[in-house]
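Lab notes, practical 5.
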Amino acid sequence: MVPEPRSADPRLATTDWLDAGGHMSVRVLTPGPRTLLVEVVGEVDLNTARRLDKVLQERVPAHLDALVIDLAGVTFFSVAGLNSLLRAQLLADSAGARLTVDAGGSRAVQRLFTLLPSDFDCVADVRPVP
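Output from the prediction step:
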């Protein structure tokens, strides 16, 4: 089942960090008219991944060109986080957007991404991890 994104509303973006509970915070920015940047900081585990899903569900508009998820500030990234990225891809698809996952210098994200099959980038545009 593909989640239904919310309608476009510039008030959905925030420059403030949202406390997603646990040890994770999320900030949603609109750097361009049809671009959404979601910055994630802290731990993405089974509990916080559900909250990340909720933030994305509530904030991804119906029409979008690009959805960028910045994981540079992530200190722990579990398989539940990977599942959140796959659900984010469904949201991006339904909004007509290209999903880009930016791992930044996060060793936690790098560790999990090295376990993925080499063709995972066909699911999302994963920026190379140094």
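Observations recorded by the TA: The first strand starts at residue 18 and ends at 19. Confidence is low (pLDDT under 50) at residues 1-12.
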